[in-house]
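A.,

Following up on our hallway conversation. Structure tokens first:
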């Protein structure tokens, strides 16, 4: 017995119908072995990984046509894994990570449900080292900045896992913590751009406030060799 209720839904992304196992709603909770508590996941936040949020769907749609050639890509806070699934369907070099103890299982199930090859997954917290994760050309995530301390935590995580030349894409429904996050990434050499990203209303937010924030850092120029 799972201890929580799930359902299987279909989401149309681009020209692809993706099958997803999700939690039935945000009232689900089960932590009989204490793994979520040990991971720092509170009962209130426990179900958040397992439902599809508007920003997550918007990011998945954006990734349906985003350039992926020769890029090692990381999805942060992958949850049920929709965006990673879209990228895997396109043949991208995608790795997913989340700190929720069930995220890897949901991602594996959804990968198999769609007949895709296994997507590499790492349990990774933003606080502390994740030596097995490595570095990436493109780091993506959706609705990640919903608590005050997330800006500093996510910026610190990116400092460890972004390559010298890298891009970070964050789909945000208007949570309010993008400004401090942007300042922290600017200190790492990233330049910010943004575009409106239509999305339905997320929890506590009206529709149509979504933005896709892009942070780009170019590799430092190699000093010319003197003769």
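Then the amino acids I'd put at each of the 227 positions:
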């Amino acid at each position: 017995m799972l201890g929580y209720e799930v359902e299987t839904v279909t989401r149309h992304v681009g020209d692809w119908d993706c099958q997803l196992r999700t939690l039935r709603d945000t009232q689900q909770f089960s932590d009989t072995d204490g793994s979520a508590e040990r991971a720092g996941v509170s009962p209130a936040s426990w179900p958040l990984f397992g439902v599809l949020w508007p920003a997550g769907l918007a990011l998945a749609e954006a990734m349906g046509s985003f350039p992926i050639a020769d890029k090692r890509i990381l999805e942060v806070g992958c949850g049920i894994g929709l965006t990673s699934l879209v990228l895997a369907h396109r043949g991208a070099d995608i790795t997913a990570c989340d700190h929720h103890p069930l995220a890897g299982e949901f991602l594996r199930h959804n990968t198999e449900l769609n007949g895709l090859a296994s997507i590499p997954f790492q349990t990774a917290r933003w606080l502390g080292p994740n030596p097995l994760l490595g570095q990436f050309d493109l780091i993506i995530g959706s609705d990640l900045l919903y608590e005050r301390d997330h800006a500093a935590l996510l910026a610190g995580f990116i400092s460890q896992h972004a390559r010298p030349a890298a891009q970070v894409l964050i789909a945000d429904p208007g949570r309010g913590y993008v400004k401090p996050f942007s300042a922290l990434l600017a200190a790492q050499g990233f330049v910010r751009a943004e575009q409106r990203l239509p999305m339905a209303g997320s929890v506590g937010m009206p529709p149509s406030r979504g933005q896709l924030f892009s942070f780009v850092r170019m590799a430092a120029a190699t000093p010319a060799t003197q003769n």
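The chain has a mean pLDDT of 93. Curious whether your intuition agrees with the design.

B.
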